[in-house]
Design brief:
Elements: E1 6-10, H1 19-29, E2 33-39, H2 51-57, E3 65-70, H3 78-84, E4 88-92, H4 118-130, E5 134-139, E6 156-160, H5 175-185, E7 189-193, H6 201-207, E8 211-214, H7 216-219, H8 224-233
Helix pairs in contact: 1-8
Length: 237
């Protein structure tokens, strides 16, 4: 099991008029990686950014860049995101199984499944890794642990603590039980994304998380270095 807590900062809440400076702020604060939320308006009810932003920030930072693909048909885009400079590709389990009634059509959210096609998902995970990037599988709040033997191939699991689509949502504590169960069976990186702050992060780390993804908590602070220092300290308790 990882012994230190890492901090991943999503640029979704950064000031895009001075993105280079915002990346420098992350570096100066001691952030471990840059998180890029990619949304397509189909898998989630919002549209954000794509490969062009990763291409823009890749030359200005040596930090690992994670492309969180909240998109339909992620397999069609993993290569291009790696080519643009992403070091970590995070894909959703909900793209690899039959979705529950009520979230199968366009405009029906959040996307949820009860099980996935392990071998189909494994093909994409191996493809990502063979191209030199790390592969992470993401679970929406309503999707149970359904990764089975795929976990041995993964570089990490990202548990969403909000339904994806928008920043500044409230943390859903029901996902903590899922994290506890996951940690009992998985010794790799477990990340959490959504509503992470000074109140919710301790419970997440206690449950087994070792990568804390944050956006508004970091960029909304006038002391971002203290935010990162605090989050990292939770793994030392």
């Amino acid at each position: 099991m990882p012994t230190e807590t890492k901090v991943s900062v999503s640029i979704l809440c950064a000031d895009f008029t001075k993105l280079g400076d915002e990346i420098k702020k992350c570096e100066d604060a001691g952030v471990d990686m840059i998180h890029v939320d990619v949304m397509d308006g189909h898998f989630v009810p919002n549209i954000t950014i794509g490969q062009v932003i990763i291409e823009a920030i890749r030359p200005v930072t040596k930090l690992p860049i994670e492309a969180h693909l909240m998109i339909e048909n992620p397999w069609a885009y993993t290569d291009s995101f790696i080519d643009s400079g992403a070091n970590i590709i995070s894909i959703h389990a909900e793209c690899y199984g039959e979705r529950r009634p009520g979230c199968r059509q366009y405009g029906e959210y959040p996307k949820e499944v009860d099980e996935i096609d392990i071998e189909r998902a494994r093909q994409d995970v191996i493809r990502i890794k063979n191209k030199g990037a790390q592969a992470v599988m993401v679970l929406n709040p309503g999707t149970p642990l359904c990764l089975g033997g795929l976990m041995t191939d993964l570089d990490g699991v990202l548990v969403m603590s909000v339904n994806p689509g928008f920043a500044k949502q409230k943390f859903n504590p029901s996902v903590l039980a899922k994290i506890i169960d996951l940690r009992e069976n998985y010794k790799g990186n477990i990340a959490i994304d959504g509503g992470v702050n000074e109140l919710t992060a301790p419970e997440a780390v206690k449950a087994g998380v070792n990568v804390l993804a944050t956006a508004s908590y970091f960029f909304g602070s006038d002391k971002p270095r203290d935010v990162v220092k605090y989050l990292k300290s939770l793994g030392q308790a």
